[in-house]
Amino acid sequence: MANLVSWDFTQLPTDIIEILEKDIKQFDSSIGQSGLMGDNVNLNIRDSKNAWINTSHWIGGWLWYYVSKMNRQNFLYDIVDVDGGTLQYTHYGEGQFYNWHQDSDIDTHYRPQQIYSSDENKAQDLTIQAGEYVRKLSFALQLSDPSDYRGGEVEFLDNNNNKFLAPKQKGTMIVFDSRVRHRVRKIKSGMRKSIVGWVVGPRWK
Asked: Contact 184/152 with Cβ under 8 angstroms?
């Protein structure tokens, strides 16, 4: 049976992770309030800060290797690329959190405005004709050491509404079905940093 959530400890040397952290500090100056889908800000749902990193940055290729490997090992989804060609560099400080949510569901997908048996369909939006891409996998790379913060666990709900936590080990790569409900628990102290992204592929058929 495939798992809803998969993780890899990567076993990256600590100094490699430190090089990554040092390199992406250039994005700290652009850190701003995190929004929801559509960039709406609702601090009752999500309170964190983030900046965006283009996937042309060297970390993009490294993360894609792990996403592709873990997809082959567990999900076998038809995937194409990282959503929007960007990665989210996220900070959760003391008191910050992200409540239960899903990264993708049917209500986030394009709804065709077809009028059957009508010539009006010829003017239909090319989005559906060319093939819509939807989020299929989500991933998070843990940048902070567990000793850097208290709280801030990434928690999931399985199909039986049982809760379980992902590992907090520095360098852990977490990949999961974007339809799985999850949250980031409130930070009690310290700072949790991660790189988050979403992987798209052709709409489910």
From this structure: yes
